[in-house]
Q: What sequence folds into this?
């Protein structure tokens, strides 16, 4: 068994109070049973505070306050559980976030979800092709079947193709589709926009931005999207190609989602440039973070997108 991570993964560190969009705000955080049992053993006032702050019916979770903040997120945007009990006292979801993990017959693959602004920054500031680091990991391999091995080999070909800087990104994307006997299908953007506006919205600013796109004129491809878009396509293929191919027989999903998302992000970035006269790294990170939070981290939204994008 091996563990595989992107080469920038070891550089990740939560930026805590410096984060502009704390994962401790607006998200209902489940408390796993092992951590719940540990919290019940905490004595004194802090133990009582823990007990009072966890809703235990159905799936145990922290009760958010009126501002949808975790009850342990203090005024300095630091976690009182870490300050009081140490980082190893966090529940599993808090300890893991924004990491994602996928298990396959011979490997564990990990990465960083882009709903975290620091993860998005690491991706966008990466220079050169993204490589994947492998190291031994405890556990016994299971016998891989032919379908898995074929998808694994095909994904390697895709990742190399998408990072071939001798060709424009749009050419690489078309070639990636052609490896599957397909061409990128594109709905009218007005139709894409209506779909997006009909999905669940987590942040009002996202809906406001989508509404403003109705009146945005067409524009040229943003040259900065060559590398940013490449990194996003690599992220999507790494994260979804094997899992969706094996579990849903839809290995094309990350390519479809990538082509769709590049068009959307390019328009959002052009709008920012037109309104503010510049497009900074902070702008690019924020659009990528919002895109991920709104589309990837809502299961209903991701399923709706998958259905829409599969329509030829």
A:
């Amino acid at each position: 068994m091996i563990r595989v991570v992107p080469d920038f993964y070891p550089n990740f560190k939560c930026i805590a109070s410096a984060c502009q969009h704390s994962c401790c705000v607006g998200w209902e955080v489940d408390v796993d049973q092992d951590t719940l049992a540990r919290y019940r053993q905490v004595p004194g006032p802090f133990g009582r505070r823990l007990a009072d702050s966890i809703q235990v019916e159905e799936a145990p979770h922290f009760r958010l306050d009126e501002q949808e903040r975790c009850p342990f997120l203090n005024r300095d945007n630091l976690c009182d559980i870490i300050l009081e009990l140490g980082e190893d006292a966090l529940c599993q979801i808090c300890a893991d976030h924004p990491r994602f993990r996928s298990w396959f017959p011979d490997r564990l693959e990990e990465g960083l979800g882009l709903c975290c602004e620091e993860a998005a920054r690491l991706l966008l500031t990466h220079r050169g092709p993204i490589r994947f680091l492998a190291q031994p990991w405890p556990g016994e391999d299971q016998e891989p079947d032919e379908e898995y091995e074929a998808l694994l080999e095909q994904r390697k070909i895709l990742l190399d193709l998408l990072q071939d800087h001798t060709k424009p990104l749009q050419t690489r994307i078309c070639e990636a589709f052609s490896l599957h006997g397909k061409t990128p299908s594109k709905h009218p953007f007005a139709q894409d926009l209506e779909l997006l506006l009909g999905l669940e919205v987590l942040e009002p600013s996202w809906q406001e931005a989508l509404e403003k796109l109705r009146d945005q004129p067409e524009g040229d491809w943003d040259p900065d999207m060559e590398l940013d878009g490449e990194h996003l396509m690599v992220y999507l293929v790494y994260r979804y190609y094997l899992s969706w191919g094996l579990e849903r027989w839809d290995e094309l999903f990350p390519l479809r989602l990538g082509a769709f998302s590049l068009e959307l992000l390019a328009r959002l970035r052009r709008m920012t440039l037109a309104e503010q006269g510049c497009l900074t790294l902070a702008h690019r990170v924020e659009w990528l973070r919002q895109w991920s939070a709104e589309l990837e981290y809502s299961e209903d939204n991701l399923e709706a997108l998958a259905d829409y994008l599969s329509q030829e």
In short: The chain has 13 helices and six strands. Strands lie at 2-6, 54-55, 61-62, 99-104, 107-112, 132-136. The chain has a mean pLDDT of 92. The CA atoms of residues 105 and 142 lie 5 Å apart.
